[in-house]
Each structure stands twice: as C-alpha cells, then as structure tokens.
Design a protein that fits this description.
Distance between the termini: 50 Å
Structural class: alpha/beta
CATH class of the largest domain: Alpha Beta
GO molecular function: hydrolase activity
Number of helices: 17
Radius of gyration: 26 Å
Shape: elongated
Keywords: Signal
CATH superfamily of the largest domain: Alpha/Beta hydrolase fold, catalytic domain
Pfam families: DLH
Signal peptide: 1-16
Number of domains: 2
Helix content: 25-40%
Strand order of the largest sheet: 8-9-11-10-12-13-14-15
Protein name: Dienelactone hydrolase domain-containing protein
CATH topology of the largest domain: Rossmann fold
Length: 471
C-alpha cells in the first residue's frame, strides 16, 4: 500500500470514529460525554476477517498484533475509550501492517474499556484510566519492542489515545506520532514533544476545535508537519546507515572543472586565508559562506560575500579516508582559527555579519554562533551538529534539513528545535524539505527539476533569514 493510501486509511478511521460529533454541547458535570460517546463501535462484529491475533501478555498488556513480525519498524495504535476490540480499529491496524509495519494495539484498559453504560461518568472513568499514567506504564512495551529488534517506532492515537501518544512523544521512546481528534491535549503539551507530530482535527469537533489545533501547531514547529510514514522511513534509513557521513556526504560532488561566469575574484590572503569574494564591496553587511554554493547569488542580494578556503588547499575528495580527513580538518578548530576573518571584516566596516554553512560548514557555522562574531547563521543539511550545540548558540539560527538525510535525519532536526524551544531567548526557524537527501541545498543533480527547485527554495529561505536579522 502506498503511503498516501495508508494516510487515507488513517483519515477514514478518524472520520468514522468521530463522525456525528457535532450535536449538542458538553455538560459541566461530564464535559466529555456527548461528543466522545457518539457512534460507539460495533463490538459484536465478526472478527473472522482479522489478519492479526490477540496476545494475552505483551510486556504485561493484552494486545492485538498484526503486520510484518520481522520488520524493524513498529507502530502502536492507541485506541479511544472503547478499547482495542473495535473491529474498525483492528481493520485499519491490519492495513497499516500490510504496508510493512509490525503493528501493536495494546489493551491499555486491561479488560475494562468504557462499555457504553449511560450510568458511568466518563470523567471519573478517565480519572481511573489516565492516559498520562498509561504512557508511563507502557514503557515496558517499548522496551519489549526494542528487544525484538524494532529500532523505529511510531504511535497513532485517537481521542484518549492521542493524549497517550503525546505523553510518550515527550520521551525518547518514539520517532513520530499521529494524533486524531485528540482529547485532553493542550497547546502547552506541544512544547514538550520531541519528535515529528501530525495533528488531525475535525471542523465540528467541540473537544479539540480548529482554534485549539491552530494553537497546537503554533506551539510546535508549523513548518515541519511530516506524515508518520515519511518520518519513519527517513529514520529507518538513518538507523540502517553503518557509516552515515560517508554515503551521503560524498554524493553529487561538485564539478571542479566547471568555471566561467563568476562575478567575484579570488583573494590570496584575506586574514591568512585564500578566499573567493563577491558582491557589494561597500556594503556594511557581510556573509561568510562555508561553501562556495550560491556565493554570487547571495552577493546579488546586496551583501559582501566571502568564501574562505577553510581547508587550506586540502578539500575532501571521494578517495580520502573521511574519518582521518575530519581529524585534521575539525570544524570546531577551524571556527577558532577563523576569528581573524571576522576581525578583518569588522575592520573593513562590515558591522553585520552572517554565516551560511553546508554539511561540514554547518558545524563551523554553529561553532561561530556560540561566539560574538556574528549576528545570524543558516545551516543546511549540517554534519556533526548535536542538540546540545543548540544550547550554546547565541544568535538567530535557521536550520534546513532533508527528509531522507541520513547524516542529519528529521528526528535530529526536531531535537535541535526542542532544545531551542526550551531556551526561548533566540529566534529560530527550521524546515524539513520533503523527498530530498543530504546535499539538497547545494550539491544536487542540476538536471533534476525537483532537486533544482528545492535548491532555489533553500537559497530563498537563507536570504530571507539574513534580510530579517542583518539590518
């Protein structure tokens, strides 16, 4: 089944479970009662067509399991208050399993789901079956899945199960979640979410109305709403890469023989560096590019652009031992050495300086951003940048990642964002470009229209960021 078809299945389930939820207002005595209890599942439906089986004890929980037992990717489906026996829920779990996932639908209520008895106060029932507590109790499930070789895990949660999914997403147990017509999820929950999240709401949902969904998106990262399948696919690729820097860092090397048409010149000694310089020499705004990508185009936007040879005539090639090369060309050490460049620019009247870094240059840019040498940085498909680095950055930072980047996969970009959000003292922006791998912002196949357009978009975002912060 194609990813788009599977997402449609998720959406159909959302609509089927939530359908008819617009009638009536919630009462103050039992605020969840009316909409949450509309259209209860038909629990007496024939289960002969189910592809999975019920396991009595999966890490302490009864569970319906289906799909590819040998897959390294697992999805946990967290039900609404009616529990794991709903046939429609299991049918959709089977469809997810057909897409190549190992799917687990745990009985989080241990045989005591809400049974439709009108005498039961749902609010009190939820107090006894807290999704927050269930998320804590479910750690045994994630541990069991990882022992079974499930290295990449996602959650799809509905109503009650959505709150469960969000609580788990505040930990390091999962790579991505989808929540549909959630209950008890608030906008502040999004501040603690550490992984990609997709939020599916309904126009007439009185529990999680569109206005609340908007607040959730604002408090999360609105630019990176990736689907569960795409995030898991990218994360699985990252987990499978034995030597992540090697494979993608060396794809699409630049054509070093191509030349001509350059607007700038090579300076043989700029504060001790050979450098390509271009753009407006009299501008008070300077950009240091840790790569020669788009230097002239950045200069055309009114900046004085410097592309120093940070490798001193010894750039990496496809034939070098990359690990050994990195040991002698540390971006951390080079950021320290490059202070002479920034001093030179200040002496030349460049009062506002930014750095744009690609791959190795992304780490260089981040290290410089920990000092007072610059006013803003942009990093594209960075290499060797960690979430802890974000705790030390002093200046506005834009982070551009790729969905299929195995060097800096989407999950790591989300960790950057989570670290920055905890600080709340510098401006930041992050975007994950769909369908592209490492090198998408500069070293791509120029004969591929999609890759070319993505590169143009990355350039436009970088220029917008510098325009915003270098003024």
């Amino acid at each position: 089944m194609a990813p788009s078809s599977l997402l449609l299945c998720w959406s159909i389930l959302c609509l089927a479970v939530a359908g008819g939820g617009g009638g009536g207002a919630a009462t103050s005595a039992d605020p969840l009662r009316l909409p949450c209890l509309d259209n209860p599942p038909e629990l007496t439906a024939d289960g002969d067509s189910e592809a999975g089986v019920v396991i009595d004890d999966l890490a302490g929980f009864p569970a319906y399991v289906t799909g590819d037992v040998h897959s390294g990717r697992a999805i946990i489906v967290a039900s609404d208050i009616y529990g794991f026996e709903a046939p429609l829920l299991r049918d959709n779990a089977d469809k997810v399993g057909e897409a190549g996932y190992y799917v687990v639908v745990p009985d989080f209520f241990h045989g005591q789901p809400y049974n439709g008895d009108p005498s039961i106060n749902v609010t009190k029932w939820i107090t006894l079956h807290s999704p927050v507590k269930a998320a804590e109790d479910a750690k045994s499930i994630f541990a069991a899945l990882k022992r079974e070789g499930k290295s990449v895990i996602g959650i799809g949660g509905y109503c009650w199960g959505a709150k469960f999914a969000v609580e788990v997403a505040k930990t390091n147990e999962v790579e991505a979640i989808v929540i549909s017509h959630p209950s008890e999820v608030i906008a502040d929950d999004m501040k603690g979410v550490k992984c990609p999240i997709e939020i599916l709401g309904g126009q007439n949902d009185p529990i999680t109305p569109p206005s609340l969904v908007d607040h959730m998106q604002i408090n999360h990262m609105a630019t990176a709403s990736l689907s569960l399948l795409l995030c898991l696919a990218a994360a699985a690729g990252a987990a499978a890469a034995a030597a992540p820097p090697r494979l993608q860092c060396f794809e699409h090397p630049p054509d070093m023989k191509a030349g001509g048409g350059e607007a700038g010149v090579v300076v043989h000694d700029l504060a001790g560096y050979e450098a390509y310089v271009t753009g407006a020499a009299h501008s008070g705004r300077a950009i240091v590019l840790a790569s020669d990508v788009y230097a002239d185009k950045v200069g055309d936007a009114g900046y004085y652009v410097v592309v120093p040879d940070l490798f001193h005539g010894d750039p990496a090639t496809t034939t070098v031992n990359f690990t050994e090369w990195l040991e002698s060309h540390s971006p951390v050490k080079e950021a320290e050495k490059a202070k002479s460049i920034f001093a030179f620019l200040r002496n030349e009247g460049k009062s506002l300086v930014g750095v744009g870094g690609y791959c190795w240059g992304g780490k260089f840019a981040v290290e410089v951003a920990k000092t007072n040498e610059v006013e803003a940085v942009v990093i594209s498909h960075p290499y060797a940048v960690t979430a802890d680095d974000m705790k030390e950055v002093k200046w506005p930072i834009e982070i551009l990642g790729g969905q299929n980047d195995t060097v800096t996969p989407p999950r790591l970009v989300y960790q950057y964002v989570h670290a920055l959000r905890q600080r709340n003292d510098i401006d930041f922006y992050a975007k994950i470009f769909p369908g592209v791998s490492h090198g998408f912002a500069g070293r791509y196949n120029t004969s591929d229209p999609f890759a070319l357009e993505t590169g143009k978009q990355a350039l436009a975002l970088m220029l917008d960021w510098f325009q915003k912060h270098l003024k």
